[in-house]
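User: Second chain of the day. Same drill as before.
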Amino acid sequence: MPAECANDPPRLVMVGLLGSFRLLKQGRPVSFRAAGGKIQNLLGLLAIRPAGVRRSVLLQALWPDSEPALAAQSLNSLVHASHKLLADGLGGAEPIVHDADMYRLNYEAGIEVDADRFCSLLASAEGEDRAGRRESAMGFYRQAVDLYNGDLCLDADFVAIVERERLRASYLSTLAHLADYSWQREDVSSCLAIALRMLTTDPCREDAHRLMMRCYLARGERIQALRQYHLCQEILRADLATEPEAATTLLYESARSAAGGAGPGEGSVRILYA
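Assistant: Same format as last time:
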């Protein structure tokens, strides 16, 4: 994906793929009712393949049942419609460029994809973390989380499905970093909210269930911690036909015997970053 600095200003045209498809021109939503479905499909296909897409692939994806000549004509019309829709936000530049039979988004003219921006923010966070600037890293992680409005809205082909799962895993890993940071700073309320957000995205994340149990214990809510374990157990049995890990059961037994768990800032909470 196109390299950029996470501190760069927003691009002139944003193609939004996280959560739902959106087009923003200088920060404002763009209406694209005319040929809207096809424009969305075309821009989506190009957005998850920044190196470009062959004409034959686009024709097959967008007009699988059409004659090649008619499909090619339709593609030319769709590219022209995209130009009319977005070029004024790019200073007249073409939003889609093509060389021979390859088509790609015109990143150089100022087009950005929110999924690319998300990855750029994570790269900046990881760089700050490696340099020992953890507070700065957490700032980038928070920006990435705020940008992630939902899973990639495309599922048209294998490439889109793989990319959706990759981004989703990165999002969950980012939440894990933020949860661990909150726990170490003894910010139990924030830690609990982040763990809940992780479970909203993936109810089978045992590390998030354990973290919620620890947060409840730190707040003196032992019964709620026990209930969280049983919820985890029910979800794992229903979705994966498996039982909680030994670490989760050990925490449950500790809570049930009123021994509790480590308080905020103590020990490891075994959060998984990948």
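The chain has two domains: 13-113, 157-256.

User: Great, on to the next one.
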